[in-house]
């Protein structure tokens, strides 16, 4: 709710709250916002029948600074044992991109970041190949490559990921067609803050060269799925999916190109929602507050 | 929010609230819901920067009956000078359909109603032609025709509309390709509860036979707009719009058929949202809480 | 191509031709059409790099009757060893519908047939349950039920299918959520003229209650696939696929309802294209000349 | 049609043919292609009932060079008085971009060109402002600005356009939100090879600030139209249109941003089809052979 604007500077806050579902939460939260002199400009909530969890995302305008807003919310957060996040609307998320040789997803992320469509900062693109050095440089983003050829070099690569995350205060790791399976330990460490993209078909295809299989079966839709990275390959909570229509005249090569477009836009969409604090995890599922 | 269900029957209520925007409304409303032993299962809100109005739609589960819920909300409704509606989720809306000779929209409404996809009851279809008598009878709905040939017969038709509205406790009048302009008096009387459908093009075309004009210009999209009826023909607040892609190979006749499909589904969608209390009016605009 | 219309009645023919791909086919075919006094009003072709087959669909206006058109095409059909079909544009296809208890696909087929949107005649709906008797009767279509409870009754049901196909000159068998696996012998007998529908997800789910699994994984798209029936369950050549976007707020029951809408429209679309001679089979794939 | 490939290099040609519609054209054309040792790999045709014109687009693989292909087609082109174009599939079209201060369309064109998604070469971006100099330079494309402040400077700008077209063998001029009305003389000179983009709404809005009007009316769809430039502003043959769904929560500023995305992708799509010889003009309409 907006009122006549007072003559002081307002901050625009985003708040996410997760707790066990009970009656009265909305009332308690809205009361806390009132006490912190905030107006709720956007509000979404969801009660999960599966897990009994309650999820809420608010955008709040207030002359209060972070300390005042936190103090206002603290009694409610404590009482309902909430997991809470308070952030500034539009603050760029510090994001590490992992890549291999394919440039389409990396390029789409960097282009949208530069065009102001993706609220992220990308201090580093890290790859196991040098292929994308020029592309990344074109956008003025640091690029580093470390080959992965065996268990030792893979461990070294992962150690570099861990370092880069710490050195750069990374909040999100994006696997932009990275094509490598992360070790269980790294998956664990990055749980809930690493996003992967892969192609998707109806029906699904197992094994190598799925686009060739999709062509052989004459599928009419091909698509992509962006999901959180977990120890189960390609099985983490789904954030976004898209498909596009194809027909019999498409060669396997054309299916690859079309699929790459879907991968790019699906990954960028998932990253955007994550950076805007719109993605909350409910067990094996995501809640997306668009 | 849902809690462990108490061992009493619950009602599922929908509540809409509209008032001047001020701080604290959400807090006050959620407090009233708590007092009426309600859990908010769905909540949407919007603050209009154009008119300074605040709009809210809630779904609430509660063991309270209507009197208790109304009593709980009354202090808030009074304090904020709210326009409020309390209804039972899923209650069929009593709907009068006005038709002419074209059957596509009438058929779609009746089919969806019968299939359980449209929460309306249709006690009468009223037409200025007898063309649709068999179609309407097929669905077991009463049908009445009254010719409109001059000013006197038009006035008689409109008088019959007014009677039918009163006799049948009509809450919504749907102009399903009725093709007649309602008199200013009847527009006024039905303000906010009459919905019309018309075809839409980019760019718009004035004058007769717009599908032929659309064909001549080779438009690539044709569509339909459902809107509230006002004194300004085809200019009331827009509820829903759809378009569909066409190409150069379509004849004017095919454009008409495609356009009719869009008209049917757009009108049915608008009626469904209205019947679900999802459509609120904000000056010349609508707020749609999907 | 259209010319000044001669003062004789014209027929509108659809012709499909399939043969091994070689140079000169289009020239030979168009010459034969010229000899049969035909104008090609629509023409589509496809050369399959996978199988080396050439596919063509023509619509032809001509004063020639079927005998003259066949005679005109015969030398080309012989020379290129073509599989050819000559039919009248818009002729209703004689279609047998197999159903179980779910009514959504049956209702959609019957409604569209009646509305003139589906060029089929349906002389019989055959079911292993009596559930849909009233619905089918509502559309004036004969309905017959024969329970399937064991191997013997299943064999009897399939024998009735074979009889019904022969007695009614059936050209297409539609499994409208029939939920029974046809025996290999019946699959073989109906090869290329039986269409099935099933739900589809990204990723696919094995086992019972896929909508519940889809809910548990939080999929963002659900859909349906219409395909030819083969001995491999759910694995015949795909004719059409659709998906629709869902979000976290949908219950498993809502996913079922949404999925049923997709099944209905996808099956009806596949039947329509088949009835219009737009579906040709190329090994495990279909060519769809929309 | 493809045959066993001969052991010589093949060219991939695109051929477009337009003439008065008469029987026998397809036969004559396919015969000429056979004589030029060509295999037709893609073929589309359309007979316009409005103008009596016949339109055809072929892709042909052949060991023949341009001279042999032209010679093979010449008798047919002469006999049917065809307008014919023979081009190499994938050849980049020499394209001049005219711009003003808005960068979204220019950026999209340059990005897609660079990403290999748009078969154009852009030797120059010409603007009446200097705003986009850095953006264009980022892609390594020459940029020139010439202010337009009065009739004389406008005439000078247009003279520079004419020079640039001649000096650079320009085949297409793209008005990428150029915001200036070309003089009738320049429209005439560039007829059929200049493409403009503008926003589109249902219903259409006249006058200034259409996004603000669209917001005030609460439209649910906003879009864009790409069309050929003619003397009638915003009224040339339409090449492509897109819309996107918006809702009541969008500010006028957000509508502008959304509309710009539609403008960008619609313009790029139109340019792509034009560059691929897929756009043919039929009076006030276009034939698009996708």
From TrEMBL, chains A, B, C, D:
Gene3D superfamilies named in the record: 3.30.70.260, Formyl transferase, N-terminal domain
* The UniProt record lists the keyword Nucleus: no
CDD domains xref list: ACT_F4HF-DF
Provide this UniProt record's keywords sorted from A to Z: Hydrolase, One-carbon metabolism, Purine biosynthesis
Q: Which domain of life is it from?
A: Bacteria
Q: Does the keyword Hydrolase apply?
A: yes
User: What are the recorded Gene Ontology BP terms?
Assistant: 'de novo' IMP biosynthetic process; one-carbon metabolic process
**A molecular function GO annotation:** formyltetrahydrofolate deformylase activity
**Which principal EC class is assigned to this enzyme?**
hydrolase
Catalysed reaction, written as an equation: (6R)-10-formyltetrahydrofolate + H2O = (6S)-5,6,7,8-tetrahydrofolate + formate + H(+)
Q: Which residues form the active site?
A: 234
Pathway assigned in UniProt: Purine metabolism; IMP biosynthesis via de novo pathway; formate from 10-formyl-5,6,7,8-tetrahydrofolate: step 1/1
- Name the PROSITE patterns on file: ACT
Pfam families referenced in this protein's UniProt entry, alphabetically? ACT, Formyl_trans_N
Question: Which EC number(s) does UniProt give?
Answer: 3.5.1.10
Q: Which family does it belong to?
A: Belongs to the PurU family.
What role does this protein play?
Answer: Catalyzes the hydrolysis of 10-formyltetrahydrofolate (formyl-FH4) to formate and tetrahydrofolate (FH4).
User: Cross-referenced PANTHER family, in alphabetical order?
Assistant: FORMYLTETRAHYDROFOLATE DEFORMYLASE, FORMYLTETRAHYDROFOLATE DEFORMYLASE 2, MITOCHONDRIAL
The name this protein goes by in its record: Formyltetrahydrofolate deformylase
Q: Which organism is it from?
A: Cryobacterium psychrotolerans
The protein's gene is named purU
């Amino acid at each position: 709710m907006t009122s006549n604007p007072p003559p002081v500077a307002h901050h625009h806050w985003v708040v996410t709250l997760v707790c066990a579902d009970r009656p009265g939460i909305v009332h308690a939260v809205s009361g806390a916002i009132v006490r912190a002199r905030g107006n709720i400009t956007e509000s979404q909530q969801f009660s999960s029948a599966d897990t009994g969890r309650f999820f809420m995302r608010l955008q709040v305008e207030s002359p209060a600074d972070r300390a005042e807003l936190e103090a206002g919310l603290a009694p409610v957060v404590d009482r309902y044992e909430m997991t809470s996040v308070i952030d500034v609307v539009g603050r760029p998320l510090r994001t590490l991109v992992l890549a291999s040789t394919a440039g389409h997803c990396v390029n789409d992320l960097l282009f949208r970041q530069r065009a102001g469509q993706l609220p992220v900062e990308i201090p580093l693109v890290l790859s196991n190949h040098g292929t994308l050095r020029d592309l990344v440089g074109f956008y003025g983003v640091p690029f580093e490559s470390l080959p992965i050829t065996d268990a030792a070099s893979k461990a070294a690569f992962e150690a570099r990921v861990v370092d880069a995350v710490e050195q750069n205060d990374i909040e999100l790791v994006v696997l932009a067609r990275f094509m490598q399976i992360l070790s269980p330990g790294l998956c664990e460490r990055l749980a809930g803050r690493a996003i992967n993209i892969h192609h998707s078909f109806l029906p699904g295809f197992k094994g190598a060269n799925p686009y060739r299989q999709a062509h052989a079966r004459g599928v009419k839709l091909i698509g992509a799925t962006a999901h959180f990275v977990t120890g189960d390959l390609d099985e983490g909570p789904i954030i976004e999916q898209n498909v596009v229509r194809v027909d019999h005249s498409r060669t396997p090569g054309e299916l690859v190109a079309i699929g790459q477009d879907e991968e790019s836009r699906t990954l960028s969409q998932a990253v955007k929602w994550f950076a805007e604090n719109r993605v909350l995890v409910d067990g094996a599922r995501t809640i997306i507050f668009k």
